[in-house]
User: Which sequence fits this backbone?
């Protein structure tokens, strides 16, 4: 089972969140550091069975919208994969 760990602890800027996403998922330098790019790379380059997200609750409230978008992209990608009989991963939030 391939597990990707995304630790968001201590992020102070949205750019840091995207940098941590890029590193955790092993995305190439072409990753555009936005939610559309996350969807595209998640669909085309992620072969994980599970994604573990840590440190969300350590972030300030100003990140609530970004975290909701992160979850939305993950959920939409999982649904897309299931609907198209592709390997669907799961994710869990641990704080």
Assistant:
């Amino acid at each position: 089972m391939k597990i990707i760990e995304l630790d968001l602890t201590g992020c102070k800027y949205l750019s840091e969140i995207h940098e941590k996403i890029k590193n955790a998922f092993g995305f190439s330098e072409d990753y555009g550091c936005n939610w559309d790019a996350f969807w595209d790379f998640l669909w085309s380059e992620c072969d994980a069975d599970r994604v573990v997200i840590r440190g969300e609750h350590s972030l300030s409230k100003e990140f609530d919208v970004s975290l909701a978008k992160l979850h939305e992209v993950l959920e939409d990608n999982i649904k897309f994969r299931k609907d198209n009989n592709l390997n669907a991963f799961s994710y869990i939030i641990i704080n």
